[in-house]
Amino acid sequence: MPVQFAAKRLSKELQKISNSLPPGIMLVSAEDLEEWLLDIKVLDSNPLYLNETYRLKFRFSSTYPIEPPEVVFVKLPDRPIPIHPHIYSNGIICLDLLGAQGWSPVQNVESIAMSLQSMLTGNSKNERPQGDEEFVRGNRLRPRDIEFYYHDNDV
Amino acid sequence: MPPPNTPEVGVAAPTAATQPQDIHLPQQASPHASSTMANASQGESPILEIDYQSIEYLDPVDDTLMCPVCKTPFHSPITTPCGHTFCAECINRALESQSTCPIDRIPINKDRDYARLPLIIKDQLDRLRVRCPNKGCDHECPRENLEGHYDRRCEFTPVRCPDPGCAKLTARRDATADKGCLHVDIACEFCDKIVVFTELDAHYDADCEGAMTQCPDCETTLPRHRLEKHRTKDCPDLHIQCRWQMAGCKLAGKRRNVEEHMSSGCSFEAVGHLMEQHEQDRKTIRDLNSRLSSLEFSRNRRRERRDRRNNNNTTTPNLDGTPPSPDTAAWDSQEDYMLAQFERLEAQMADLRKQTQELNAHLSTSLVMHTSHVSDQLANLASQVGVLHMHTSWLMGVQRQQQMQTQARTGGSSATGSSGGEEAAARPGPAAPASTEGGLRHQGVVRRGSDGGRENRTRL
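YS: structure for the whole thing
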C-alpha cells in the first residue's frame, strides 16, 4: 500500500478545513501530515464546559483513513481536559468512533471534532471514568492499543 | 477480459470493461502503442500509472461524484450491494480491515457480485475536464481522454531511459536512442552546480543562481530559459502588431498598448473574423479537393485493373482455390496482384455466403416437412390417449360404485354377526335387492376384465 494514500487524503482534508470549519472548531496547527492540533468549544450553555476551549491532538498513521487517527485532548495552562465520564484525566478519549471497530474510512477530522463536540454537549455528569486515577497512573499504552470496553451507550 | 461480474482478486472494477486496460497493465500497452506510432520512441509505454487522486480538475466537481474514502472524484467506481459507491481501490482497502460498508456498516462479501455502475455516472466522470498530470505539459482534456494522451501522446510522460543499463525514468521526448542516456551529471552553464541533465529545468526554476537575466524590452528579471516564452507571450513592452493586421489594421506598438487597443475593440475585428473564416473555408475546400482527386485516382486504377483482368481472364474466377501465378505479365506490381487476389477471394466469399444461405433454407424446409408428419402422428396419439383416459376414469367410477355396493351387501349379510347389531339397524330392508344387483354387476366387471378391451369398448 503506497504511503501517499494517507498524505493525499490528508492534504485534501487540510485544504478543506483551512477554508472553512463548523462553528466552535478551529485549526491550530497542521505543519505536516502526521500531527494536527485543533481547538474545540462547546457552543451551548452547558455549565460544565462554559467559556472553555479544549485542545485536540490528532496523530495520523500511514494507514489513515483505513484505520482511525489517534485523538487525545492535550493539557495546557489555558486548555484543560474536559470533564466527562468517557474522558480520562490524561486526555485519552473512550469513544467507539476512534476504535478499530467503530471507525469507518468515511469519517474525517472534521467529523471527529464534531462528534467530540456533541459528546461534550450532551453530557451532564460531572465525573471522570471509573478507575481514572489508576488508569492514568498505570497506562503506558498508546490510545489505539488500549482495549476499551464500550459499556455505556447513553452518554 | 473477465466478465464484469466476476471479481478475480478482491473487488474487480466493473467499469474496467469499458476502460482501456493498459493503464493498469502498462506493459500490455506497448505493442498497441508502438504499432500506432511511427516513431518508436513515442511508442514507449509509460511505467507509471496515472495517479487519479492527484490530478487537477479544471472545474469544481460536484460532491456527489466524490469518493467518500479518498475525497476525490471516483476512479473506476463500484457500487456496493447496499447502494454506496466508492473507487475500486478505496473500497478494496477499506475491506481489508473491516468487511463492512464504510457508510452503513452492512456486511460486504469481497467475492460477491457488485452492481454495475450506472452509465450516467460514468459519463459524468468521463466529462470532467482535467489537466495532464505530467510536469511541463499544459494539456487539458475530458478525463476519458486523459489515458490516451498520457499513454501515447504526451511528450512529458516518464518512460524508461533508452539506455538499457539505466533504471531511471525520463520524459518521453528525451527518450530517443540518438540522445542516449540523459542521466549524466553536467555542470550548469549559469552557476557552478552539478546537476543531472534531466533535472536541469527544475534546477533553473528552483535553485540556479546564475540563470537570471533581464528582458531587453521590459527590464524584468527572470530565469534565462524563460525569456523566450516571456517575450513571445507576456512581455508588456515588446513591439508587436495588432492581431487584425491582415484585415488592414495598421496599429503597432508595445504589447500593452496593442492589447488595450484590441480589448477596447479594433475596428478591423469584424473583417478579421470574416477573413479568418474565409481562410478556414478555403483550407477545407483544398483538403476536400485533394481527397477527391486521390479518390478518383484510386477508382481509376481499380477500373483499369478490372478491365485488364477481364481481358486476360475471360473465364469466371476459378473457385477451386488455385491462385493464378503471380509472375504473369498481367500484374504489373505485387500490390496489384495482391489486390486482385483479394477481390477474387471476396467473390468466392460472396458465392459461399449465397450457398450457405441456400443450404440453410433447404434445411429448414426439409425439417419442417419431416417434422410436420411426426407432429400429426403425435396429435393423433394424444387424442387417442385422451379417449383412453376417459374410458379408464369411467371404468374406475363404475368399479368404485360396485365396491361400495359390495360392502353394503356384505354388511347386510353379516348383520346377524356378533358385532353387527347397529349395522343391521342402520341398513333396513332395501339392502337385500341392492346387494343382489351389486353382485350381478360385480360378476360382470370381473368377466369384462378378463375378456380384454374389445368387448369393453363395444359395451360402452
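YS: worth flagging: The first strand of chain A starts at residue 25 and ends at 29.
IM: good catch. Also Residues 4-19 of chain A form the longest helix (16 residues).
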